Amino acid sequence: MERAATPLKLILGGLSVVVVGLLGVLILQAAKPTIKNPQPLNGSTTPKGDVTVSADVYGEANLREVRLHVDGRAVQPAIEAHSERHWSIRYQATLSPGAHEADLTAIDGRGREQPYRWRFTAGGPSRAAAVKFANPLPRDGSRLVAGDALISLESFFEGAGPGGAINRLKLSLNGKELITTDGRPPGGGRTVARQIRPLGAGDYVVRAEATDDQGETVPYEWRFSVLEPGKGSPDARFFPQTGFYVFGPFVDQWVQGGGLAMYGLPITPDFPQGELTVQWFERARFERAQGDRAVRLGRLGAELRDIDPPRAAPPGDGSLFFPETGHSLGGPFRAYWEREGGLAQFGLPLTEEIIEDGRRVQWFERARFELPPGGAGTPAEVQLGQLGRTLWQRGERRSHRGAPPAGRGTTRHRIYACDRTSELIL
What we know:
By secondary structure, the chain is α+β, with helices and mostly antiparallel strands. It is 17% helix and 43% strand.
């Protein structure tokens, strides 16, 4: 009996050794680090934009190292150690659209390694950062008088490469859709959404959404308020006749200096010219230094007409005589000059009273006085010539700062007026 039992004992002993060996292998296998929560999820597609590759690593022993490869290329992830046995790894990159593969290997202090591989699809880099907005109207924070207002915004791509375009620009006013512009602008230019509408007193929020040719939408927002007539201090005014706003110190000058009769309507927006900000009106050009609220009037008369030779002597008829230019001022022109602002408003006379195109006129540094037929003895006896419109339409930018004539400058400003677009070239 004992001899018969010996082979069985040997067999059982051998099996025990095998089982113990297998248990040892399993124990050793279980002791390897564990990789959990891999991101992006295996088989998923990421949104457009940068891709974040991340995972949590747990170890039965203290962790020593992690190695991460993306598409076969070794990268250096950021590691956040929650403890010696729990790490979070994170790597962010811009990946091309299409399939990608991540390989992560975790190594503990005993040298045990645990590899993990997963695959995902990247949506591609986002171009949202290249979407820009410009020229919101009314300007952010403006205070308008109740009435018609132009609400407008431009959107465009900046350095987005070939094919980049804004396909849609949508504006909403206080939560209600205002206007949507669909279709790419010709030549890859700016997309403009604009609408003129009457606005009553209140606070307004304009929200914009620009959608590019990849379907990404970028938001934008600005605010303005509308005041009751005669209440508050408006700092902006819209002129629907020409489609332009006048802002800040320029609107103060326009109102306080005589308004429509003195300056006429704005015929351009305000824009930088050298160290100045300027805006053209039918009868004037407003100027101010950057960062300064003081407004001065352009010398349009002197830019359009050379000074006449001086008189040989004062006239001796009670007229004002100006030795600086050698010319005199009398009659209704003198009365108007003194009543409406004098030297600060009009400057010195450049001529005597003369006849031009059958009309009696007199030129000054900043204006041309005119006596229209049939106006004698009426409030409109003296009128001002539209020197601003004349000089602007001629394209002559001969300011005292030597601005170049039209066609020779290098700065372009688009002008959006109502339903038309033109370019201002400096």
